[in-house]
UniProtKB/TrEMBL annotation:
Transmembrane segments: none annotated. The lineage of its organism: Eukaryota, Metazoa, Ecdysozoa, Arthropoda, Hexapoda. It comes from Thrips palmi. This is Nudix hydrolase 8 isoform X1. It comes from the Eukaryota. Keywords: Hydrolase.
Length: 338
């Protein structure tokens, strides 16, 4: 690659730019690029001198390395004019572009996080072997696998959505139920909704109950979960049922007018036999009552990953009043006594 300081223009016109390198080598930039559709100096393409300043000041994309020998380029951190982008990506000076450099460096996966304002990059990336991986409201992530003799092991984007439903029962053995405004058929269901990004399941249950019914309630235990495929947006879906305990003085209900048509405290026996209650919801409530009677509960404790230093919740079964199984050592000890 020719260093930035070694190049200076000797001729600028609408069709060609010639560069002088240390007054010894004349390099016809446009003649090299004119043969390619993406060339900056194509006769059918308009350009400005600022584009060439960009190409001189920004040689190749750098990106951020990851532990899998991959590179991620963020368009907000490495801005590039759209006219200069194709050549910085593939062919800069003397056929040395970012992609060629990454191949020489044995980079495996190359990721481009393209902000909405830089969406002009997308067709050029697609033409150079990049595919869509995922998208959010403000960006699209594209990826290319460079090794030709290695099977691509880039994981698919998250394919499962997570929702919560809450069983809230008061001292009168009434459970909190709602009827949605936008529904396919009459029903009474458990309050709940989707877990937001970065939100714990238990916090999502508490939030959804408060938003839909105005009831403040705290986590008691996890009951069960339902797993289904090809659901919303073609994703798999996991629906966690969480038992909450209402705080004192929560008898007065106020529904969310935007989403909820009706909300009420319903006797648990009535709910289990109501014609407008889905059989799956009956099952959820039945399991809750079973756990309540047996003393079994599924609770959590907080922990931190030793290497990544990220906190997480670990859910485990508490047998409560049930007699715990003897440990292997106790069993061996009893056998020796016999």
């Amino acid at each position: 690659m020719i260093a930035r300081g070694l190049l200076r223009p000797t001729l600028v016109c609408s069709k060609s730019i010639r560069w002088k390198v240390k007054d010894k080598l004349r390099f016809d930039f446009c003649d090299q690029l004119d043969s390619r559709p993406s060339g900056l100096c194509s006769r059918n393409r308009s350009f400005s001198f600022s584009t060439f300043r960009t190409m001189c000041s920004q040689t190749l994309f750098v990106g951020t390395k990851d532990r899998f020998q991959g590179i991620t380029v963020d368009s907000t951190k490495e801005p590039c004019e759209i006219l200069a982008f194709p050549d910085i990506l593939k062919v800069f000076f003397f056929n040395v572009g970012s992609l060629n450099k990454w191949r020489e460096d044995k980079v495996r996966g190359v990721w481009f996080k393209v902000a909405l304002a830089d969406s002009g990059w997308v067709p050029h990336l697609a033409q150079n072997g990049f595919r869509y991986h995922h998208a959010q409201a403000s960006y699209v992530m594209m990826v290319a696998w460079l090794p030709e003799n290695e099977v691509c092991n880039i994981p698919q984007y998250a394919s499962t959505m997570v929702g919560v439903g809450a069983i809230v029962m008061n001292d009168k053995r009434q459970i909190l139920v709602v009827s949605e405004k936008y529904r396919l058929f009459p029903h009474w269901k458990l309050p709940g909704g989707y877990v937001e990004p970065g939100e714990e399941i238990v916090n999502a249950a508490e939030r959804e109950v408060l938003e839909e019914t105005s009831v403040r309630a705290k986590f008691k235990q996890m009951i069960c979960f339902r797993h289904v495929h090809n659901f919303t947006f073609g994703c798999s879906d996991m629906y966690f049922i969480v038992a909450l305990t209402p705080e004192p003085g929560q008898e007065v209900l106020k529904k969310c007018d935007r989403e909820i048509d009706a909300v009420e405290w319903m006797n648990v026996e009535e709910y289990l036999n109501h014609p407008n209650v889905h059989s799956t919801n009956r099952f959820f409530v039945s399991k809750f009552l079973e756990y309540e009677a047996s003393g079994i509960s599924l609770t959590y404790h907080e922990d931190t990953h030793q290497i990544l230093k990220k906190s997480y919740l670990v859910y485990s079964l508490d047998l409560g009043q049930h007699k715990k199984m003897d440990s292997p050592n106790d069993t061996i000890s009893q056998s020796n006594k016999q």
